[in-house]
Write a structure and sequence with these properties.
Helix content is 62%, strand content 8%. It has 20 helices and seven strands.
């Protein structure tokens, strides 16, 4: 669990974009949508600090506020499908989910994204003109937050047209309001990057190894190239790898209670087939579909978080139909809350130690490194976290200007250290940042036996020599 002020690359990128917006730079981010940065920018304006380090707590606070806001919104949505007691039970499972609590502390897009999805779906269920217009408009807001918000719009359109039989005039008005937000986004990206859906490394869907997705020296593999290289058998194996990862991640986020109840809910959906619950199923299926393409190469468990609340409603839908006596439901509510609280304690007790414990040492490390390093760093162990508090200005999310000049970060793909070093030189890297444990095992050897590489590298930093426990070394390439 990461609650330290040292953010990962995603939330840090949003922070930097917010500060760019305040300077008048409204250019799109290459690898991410910028909606979350736009939301944060007004708050950053009034916060008015000079260092990124000082904005990080505010970003996390905004994330927590949206997470708290999502709880009553979820309850109101759950009441559309469940009795009051069962809606409270479902809300307890959502609000006390350890993964949701953990995610709310990271300064990421999910809390705002889910709050908007709950509000939009409630408006859609009103089945009137205003509800349709606002739901479609909010799907545009969701699109600015995360690109898969586009599938919210597709789902709402099909639900309004095929299930709720909304008048065509109202649907057209909804589409117009969605396009008000959609068109500026796609036009700007098309002008800026030459393609509407060119998200740089994030667009690399057909890579068998995640490390090649971000590697500067590895070419993007197109669908036709992937098919030529892998054929039918390799393509099926690739999709099965993604499916296996999806099942594993679903098993984690659908912690035991939801997982046990979901089959009962799906059975009740099959028996009743009410338009509202069919709409919920269709929404889940449509928004889940693109993950089959995305997941094999880049799937992360948090990409599924937005589905969890809707699956909780489906799970309790079956239980609500099965247990219709209030006394039984009340006892069940108490039992569910107790179980969730116990599960939270169990989850966080067995979590890795909080990164916050290393924050003071990382601050010292970064403060020293920004004064001795100037150039391009090949990293394999999230070295950016060390530098984030000390960035003064950034032109884009890959090249940051520090107090002593220009420093940038990138990744290299290689199967051995000789190739790694040659590629680093080819792509003008000046330094290598390693920790005791790296994604590449050959870099572990560089850390443990650095004297073997004295002819190739010059050690410029060793955390142990400074009495720090961060297990990091930096080498300058000769």
């Amino acid at each position: 669990m990461n609650v330290s002020p040292f953010m990962g690359s995603d939330p840090f990128g949003y922070l930097l974009k917010s500060r760019e917006i305040l300077t008048g730079d409204w250019s799109q981010m290459k690898t991410h949508a910028m909606g979350w940065s736009i939301i944060m920018a007004p708050f950053f304006y009034f916060w008015n600090m000079s260092e990124n380090f000082q904005y990080m707590p505010l970003q996390m606070t905004l994330s927590i506020i949206f997470s708290l806001l999502s709880v009553p919104l979820f309850y109101l949505l759950a009441k559309k499908y469940l009795s009051e007691i069962m809606a409270l039970a479902a809300t307890s499972v959502y609000a006390l989910s350890p993964l949701m609590i953990e995610n709310s502390l990271l300064g990421l897009t999910e809390p705002a994204f889910m709050s908007i999805s709950f509000l939009a779906f409630m408006l859609l269920l009103k089945k009137n003109r205003l509800g349709i217009i606002l739901a479609f408009f909010l799907s545009g807001v969701a699109f600015w937050l995360r690109t898969n918000g586009l599938f919210f719009f597709i789902a709402y359109f099909l639900i309004a047209w095929l299930i709720f039989k909304i008048p065509k005039k109202d649907i057209v008005l909804g589409i117009i309001f969605f396009l008000i937000l959609f068109i500026p986004y796609v036009v700007q990206r098309s002008i800026q990057f030459g393609s509407v859906f060119n998200y740089g490394s994030v667009s690399r869907y057909f890579h068998n190894d995640y490390r090649t997705v971000w590697a500067e020296n590895y070419p993007t593999i197109t669908l036709s190239q992937f098919w030529q290289e892998n054929g039918l058998a390799g393509s099926v194996a690739f999709l099965l790898k993604g499916l296996k990862k999806l099942i594993t991640h679903f098993r984690v986020i659908l912690y035991p209670l939801t997982m046990m109840l979901l089959p009962l809910g799906l059975w009740q959906v099959y028996k009743k087939r009410k338009p509202e619950i069919v709409a919920l199923i269709l929404f889940c299926l449509i928004t889940f579909a693109p993950l089959f393409l995305f997941y094999p190469a880049q799937g992360n468990m948090r990409h599924l978080y937005f589905l969890l609340p809707f699956l909780i409603i489906l799970a309790f839908y079956g239980l609500d139909e099965f247990l219709n006596k209030k006394i039984i439901q009340s006892l069940l509510l108490i039992g569910i809350i107790f179980t969730c609280v116990v599960y939270i304690q169990f989850f966080f007790f067995y979590q890795k130690p909080l990164n916050a414990a290393n924050a003071p040492e990382q601050a010292q490390e970064g403060q020293y490194l920004v004064h001795i390093i100037k150039g391009k760093i090949a990293e394999d162990a999230s070295s950016m976290q060390v530098f984030t508090p000390h960035i003064k200005y950034i032109k884009n999310t890959n090249n940051a200007t520090y107090s002593n000049g220009e420093i940038s970060f990138s990744y290299i793909w290689a199967t051995d250290f000789t190739t790694y070093l040659n590629e680093a030189k080819k792509y003008n890297f000046t330094h290598i940042f390693v920790r005791k444990k790296n994604a590449y095992s050959f870099l572990d050897e560089v850390y443990e036996n650095s004297t073997k590489y004295d002819k190739l590298l010059t050690k410029v930093y060793d955390s142990e020599e400074f009495g720090l426990n961060t297990k990091a070394k930096v080498f300058k390439i000769k």
